[in-house]
Each structure stands twice: as structure tokens, then as C-alpha cells.
Amino acid sequence: MTQRQWFKLHGWCSLPIWMLFCFICITGTIAVFSHELTWLFNENARAVNPDGLAAMPVSELVGIVQSQFPNAHITTVMTFEPYLINAVMFSSDEIPVGIAYVNQYTGVVQEVNQGITFINFMRSLHSWLLFPWQNGYSIGYYLVSAMSFVMIGALITGLVIYKKFWRAYTQPKIRVSKGKKSLLTDLHKHGGAWSIWFLILMSVTGLWYFTQQVFWHADIDIEGHAPLVQTTDIPLGEQAQPPVSFAQALQIAEQRFPDIRPSFIMMPEHNRDMFKIMGGGDFIFFDQYSYRLDINPWNGEIARAVSPDSMGTLQTIQHIVDPLHYGTIGGIWTKAIWFIFGLILSAMSITGFLLWGSRTVKASKARQTQTQDQLHHPLPQEEAR
């Protein structure tokens, strides 16, 4: 292929879906700081601790919500960063679906959210564009994850076009005074050169999300469903409450994995269901759901325990992709790096479109001028022959 053909291919890797690609980049960049933005704009989501108190056990927070809403059915508990509240999800006669924002230091219920949260909204908007899910798949999820192929194509063709890209590191040069086209070209080239690592990371993680969606669509489980309680474990006769409490289930989980930090806990939904406890640990590259335990509420036995040490290849990939994609591996500092390069990637899609637009307009004007010249100055008949 000639340089011109590579250049055209580079353009077509992005331009036909420029607006969608740019929108996904921007929403993903915002989603990186969704927790921090929630803290900034919603004071009820802040876990203020002026007296330096120790965090209360999650079981006590559940008890506080239960005392304020006596007929509430607690379904899920979520924990976040230390500066954010704990979220207790429940349903009651007055509140069909509610999320109690409980300050883990003071025990105060600061808000009851009955709608979608900003964190969930931004992750959903970025991941599947709020397209509906049906039969295990979402068209939006396919569209977003398919952008990985676009990024791979843009990266490869860009490296072919910009052969000496390392000059952007050793001899960076932005021609501010040479006109709009030169400025946009330099910004686009330098942004691409400095973002090579980020483009590779987003492409690889995006390919996994696409593969994961194919698995979901085909009903292939990467992680098996939680086992059910055996009927022999449930006492006969009158309906009884399971003897193992929520607090005891947490103690069992901590005994099994001493370094576990529970982040997502689901209560039993029926008498054959189990406590499902998920959390993070000391494995830096794994997400906050890398530890998974299913605990029998009738006898306290651990029916299933999964940790990074016992995962298979696909499970390991599934639990390291999110931290790499959203930059949560190193806390606020890596989030800031991912946020900056997310802005650069968004700007690259805009500058690339502006360059393509300027060339298209210029080429169109040149064709119009040539046509007009031919109309006003036709060739002699013999010369035309």
C-alpha cells in the first residue's frame, strides 16, 4: 500500500463513526472520576468523619437501616472509597426500590435515593449507551466494545503514516504560528504518539469486553452461578429464619480470607439462597470483586470460595480488565493519569475530524474550480481528441 492509501485507511478507521467514538471517549473519561464527582456534587454521599471515628461494621449499618424502615427487605450492601458512604439497597411498602446512604463513621442515614445514581448512570452510558438488555445481550454493549477494532486500526495505520513517531518524545514541536492546519496536525500527531500505551490498553481491554459480550450472548458462563442450599439443610415444619446472621456470615468470610475488603454483599432472596460476599484484597491488579464467597445461611458452611489464587485464565482476565480500563489500580493518582489521557484521546478524535473536514472541503473546492475552468476554457476539438 502507498502512503496515501494508508492515510485514507487511517481516516476511515474513525471518521464514519466519529461522533459515537468521541462520545464514548468523553463518557469514559468522566466515568473514571464518577466517584469523585459524586463526592463533589452530592454532600449526602460524603462520609464526613470530623471526630476521626473508626468505621462501623457493615452489619451495624444494615441494622440502622432496618430500625428506620422496620418493614424493609435488605437486598444488597455496597462499600466504596473511605470518603464515600456505604449504600444499603432495600425495598419496603413505601419505597419499592431505595438506596440508603449511610455514613459508616456516624451511623447516620444521610439520604435515601430512589432513582439511578450518577456512578451507575455514567458507567451504563459509557458501557452500553443505555441500550436495553434482552436475552443476555445489549446492542449498545456491542457498539461500544466494537470501538476496540476502530482503535486498533487507527493505531496501526497511524504508526505507519507517522514513521518517526519517537520524535514527539525527543523533539516535540507544536507549530502555533503556521496556521490552523499545521497546529491541528501537530496536536493530533503528538497526542497519538504520547498515547500509544493508552491506545493499546484501551484496545486490548475493549477486545475483552467484546469477547465477554459474545460469551454472555451465547450463555457461556465465565464464572458459575452460586450453588443452592440443599433441601436437607432446611428444617422441616414451620418456616424458620436461618440461624446464621449477616454479621456471622461476614466473620466467616474474614476468617477464610483475612485480607478481604467486602464491597458487594447480597442477602439470601429465598430459603435456598446464600449470602454472596464479594470484595477486594491485597492483589493490586484485581478488581473489588476478586474474592467471592457463597455462605450457607442454615449451617454457616462455605459452599464456594474464589480468590485470585484459585482463578482460571478467563476469570483472571475478567477481574483485571476493569482496573486497567478505568485506572483504579493505584487509586486517585492513576485515575488522574487515565483521566488526562482520556481527554487527549477525545481531543484526538476531534482534531482528526477537523483535519479530515478541512481536506475534504479543500478537495471539493479544487474540483469545483477545475470544473469551472474547463467550462470557461474548453479545449480545442482536435486537442480534446
UniProtKB/TrEMBL annotation:
Q: What is the lineage of its organism?
A: Bacteria, Pseudomonadati, Pseudomonadota, Gammaproteobacteria, Alteromonadales
Q: Which domain of life is it from?
A: Bacteria
- Asked whether the keyword Transmembrane is assigned, the reply is yes
Looking up Pfam families in the UniProt record yields: PepSY_TM
The record lists the membrane-crossing segments as: 12-33, 139-162, 191-210, 336-357
Source species: Aliidiomarina sedimenti
The protein, known as: PepSY domain-containing protein
Question: InterPro entries under this entry?
Answer: PepSY-ass_TM
Alphabetical keyword list: Membrane, Transmembrane, Transmembrane helix
